[in-house]
Amino acid sequence: MNNMITADRWDLLADVLRDEFAEYGGLLALLNEQQQGIVHRNPEWLSERNLIIEQQAVRANEFRIRRERMVRECAIDLGLAPNVPLPQLLRMAPPATIPMFEALMDGCRATAEKVQRKLHSNRALLIRIQNVTQEMLQKLQPASTTNSYNRRGAYFKSLQMQGRGVNITA
Asked: Per-residue pLDDT tens for 92-114?
């Protein structure tokens, strides 16, 4: 515990924040594309996009963990508690760098919030489309619809059409 951090260490923290910001930005762009795929009802493309989104979400989370680890290490180096929040840690940064750190931190936070809103929006859109599809199928063959729950407790409808079952899970 030497109660100071070198300029290189502050630069590294800035790079970690930039990387995290970029990953969240990439995830947000993919979610915007996903929404267009949902609207245009392209299931194959959407399935492929969903895999890419999952991979990007994992990367964004890895960068968040990397940033948290870096903040924890810097806090310890400064003699602060390891769980000190980033804004409190930044009070110890060189004064000329504080506006940059604040902008990066605000950008990460705002983009992460946009990602959460877009995830919620896309999920709601998918559920709505699924419900409309179920209603249409049920109107086509009302007697062939069975409501049930799967092993994980999720509600689904099973439809029997021309001797074949169609499982639509919500």
From this structure: 999 999 999 999 999 999 999 99
Task: State how far the Cα of 58 lies from the Cα of 73, in Å rounded to an integer.
Answer: 23
HSE value, Cβ hemisphere, 13 Å, CA-based, for 79: 5
Tokens of residue 46, six digits? 């959407």
Number of neighbours of residue 147 by Cβ within 10 angstroms: 10
For 48, phi then psi, to 5°, come to: -65, -45
Domain annotation for the chain: domains and CATH numbers:
7-126 (1.20.58)
- d(CA 155, CA 24) in angstroms, rounded, equals 32
Average pLDDT over residues 19-45: 88
Instruction: Name residue, tokens 């074949």.
Output: 164
Q: The whole model's pTM is what?
A: 0.72
Q: Please say whether the beta carbons of 70 and 12 come within 8 A.
A: yes
